[in-house]
Specification:
Number of strands of chain B: 3
Order of helices and strands of chain A: EEEEEEEEEEHHE
Number of helices of chain A: 2
Mean pLDDT of chain B: 93
Strand order of the largest sheet of chain B: 1-2-3
Strand content of chain B: 15-25%
Radius of gyration of chain A: 16 Å
Structural class of chain B: alpha+beta
Oligomer: heterodimer
Number of strands of chain A: 11
Largest sheet of chain B: 3 strands, antiparallel
Helix content of chain A: 10-25%
Low-confidence stretches of chain A: 6-43
Chain lengths: 144, 91
């Protein structure tokens, strides 16, 4: 069963009910470079539908993007699939493992930021405009 | 479960423009009256069974409505109406 000690950066914790172990995470896998390094222990498990993992992501030193404030991320099961979400900006990604879902979310956040930036605020409808404003409050390009 | 095949069908049905990206996702962009009103990520890779069980969230609709969109029971005009009915601004 997953516990808060498996996620040193966890800020909150979902329903602590038994969950299904996943086999493809090694004894210790670094999945994210944040303010500190988020490490999944070998007991890391996929949350069941009633559970979620909630944590925040900080700056990525080798990334093209600077994180201005911690990005809240939720990982949950949806119809048997692992989905990682940055809900405030309506950005979501999935993966075969928690690691992959979070890595996919990370790259997708940057891609959406770039796409919105290229289009410009005037070309965005009300929803994407709000989402872009939210994104701009969380990240910016390092060379900007 | 929504998969990559569903995502591609939905992108085509909604008339999305696909922005090719070097990372894990391409981005399907849906415009209305010249403005981007929604987007969703399409995972790269050849596996058609890749989970895309998140796109309904990016399209501001329920999982059920998204499935209906994927199996052609809902068309673009009905999706736009669903957004209006749910109070989501598109104009």
């Amino acid at each position: 069963m997953l516990s808060p000690k498996d996620f040193p950066l966890l800020r909150s914790w979902g329903t602590p009910t038994p969950s299904t172990p996943i086999s493809d995470i090694g004894p210790t896998g670094t999945v994210w470079r944040a303010t500190e390094i988020l490490v999944l222990s070998s007991s890391a498990a996929v949350p069941q539908s009633s559970e979620f993992l909630s944590f925040t992501l900080g700056d990525f030193p080798n990334s093209a993007y600077q994180v201005l404030r911690l990005i809240p991320v939720v990982v949950e099961m949806d119809e048997g699939c692992i989905v990682a979400s940055f809900n405030e900006a309506n950005i979501h990604a999935s993966g075969d493992t928690i690691n992959q879902a979070v890595a996919n979310l990370r790259s997708y956040i940057g891609d959406v930021f770039d796409e919105f930036s290229e289009l410009g605020a005037d070309a965005l409808g009300p929803g994407p405009k709000r989402e872009f404003a939210t994104l701009q409050s969380y990240i910016r390009r390092r060379n900007a | 479960m929504l998969n990559k095949t569903h995502a591609l069908i939905i992108a085509k049905k909604l008339g999305a423009e696909i922005a090719k990206k070097p990372n894990a996702h391409d981005i399907a962009k849906i415009f209305h009256k010249g403005k981007l009103i929604a987007k969703f990520g399409i995972r790269r890779g050849s596996r058609k069974d890749q989970s895309h069980q998140y796109i309904y969230r990016e399209l501001y609709i329920s999982p059920h409505a998204c499935q209906e969109l994927a199996i052609c029971r809902i068309q673009r005009a009905e999706w736009l109406q669903l957004l209006r009915d749910s109070g989501h601004e598109i104009d």
